[in-house]
């Protein structure tokens, strides 16, 4: 249904490993909310049978609700280096597990990191992650920077695709894309907006990254934002793809979806705009 409603040509499958807090070293990617490898492989095969490209995105979140951009050990005292090494070893194990699966299932891209802002200064350790992941997966490797943080990543030369979580406000979207263009040109890499979105509530177009926003239901707000997004991206040929958050993994009935004020697309008029924009580019 997602392809029929939006004319998308790819699906980004997000997998959410968990750690207890922002300074916990252990990463659990086998908890009961994660699909089994067999379930995931079946879904990838099904997606490919529909003609969709498949992008695998294994991320890590904190159980206590802290955003993953805060994960770090530099604020834990002078003996923190061992904790950094331990976390990166666990993180590498997590990524290698899905790198193997991505290779076996012929995924088109692996997003091996997402919005881990306070870890990015550990350039050497990130380069080791990339090197080890490449031993198991020979497809396109992408790192997803957090919004406004693209300049802080020092290992862009080691990836194939520069990604960003591009939740930029409607009024500054063009400006931020022009800023990112300079980074893309510096490293001569492919660029994809690997995640972006806007809630269907008043105020979200100006602050699409504010997931706790609770304005009144507004389809017009969501449509206006995506219209601007597609217009601005169409002016810049260095942008090679847009990933939109989100399509529900389990669909409620249409009446319930129509009342949703969040990012989900199903059951909302914005699907028609997205379908038109993507159909024109195929």
UniProtKB/TrEMBL annotation:
Species of origin: Anaeromicropila populeti
Domain of life: Bacteria
Protein name in the entry: 1,4-beta-xylanase
Pfam families for the chain: GH113 (PF22612)
InterPro entries per record: GH, GH113
């Amino acid at each position: 249904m997602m392809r029929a409603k939006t004319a998308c040509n790819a699906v980004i499958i997000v997998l959410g490993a968990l750690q207890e807090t922002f300074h916990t070293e252990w990463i659990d990617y086998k908890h009961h909310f994660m699909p089994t490898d067999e379930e995931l492989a079946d879904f990838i095969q099904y997606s490919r049978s529909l003609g969709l490209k498949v992008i695998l995105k294994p991320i890590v979140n904190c159980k206590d609700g802290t955003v993953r951009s805060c994960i770090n050990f530099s604020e834990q005292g002078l003996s923190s280096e061992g904790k950094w090494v331990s976390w990166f070893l666990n993180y590498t194990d997590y990524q290698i597990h899905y790198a193997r699966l991505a290779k076996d299932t012929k995924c088109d891209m692996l997003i091996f990191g997402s919005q881990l802002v306070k870890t990015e200064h550990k350039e050497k350790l990130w380069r080791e992650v990339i090197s080890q992941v490449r031993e198991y997966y020979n497809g396109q490797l992408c790192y997803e920077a957090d919004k406004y943080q693209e300049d802080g990543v020092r290992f862009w030369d080691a990836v194939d695709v520069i990604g960003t979580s591009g939740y930029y406000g409607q009024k500054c979207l063009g400006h931020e894309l022009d800023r990112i263009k300079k980074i893309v040109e510096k490293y001569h890499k492919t660029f994809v907006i690997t995640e972006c979105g806007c809630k269907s509530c008043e105020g979200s177009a100006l602050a699409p990254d504010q997931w706790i926003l609770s304005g009144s239901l507004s389809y017009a707000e969501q449509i206006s934002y995506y219209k601007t997004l597609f217009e601005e991206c169409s002016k810049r040929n260095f942008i090679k793809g847009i990933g939109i958050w989100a399509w529900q993994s389990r669909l409620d009935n249409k009446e319930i979806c129509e009342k949703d004020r969040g990012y989900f697309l199903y059951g909302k008029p914005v699907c028609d705009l997205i379908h038109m924009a993507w159909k024109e580019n195929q």
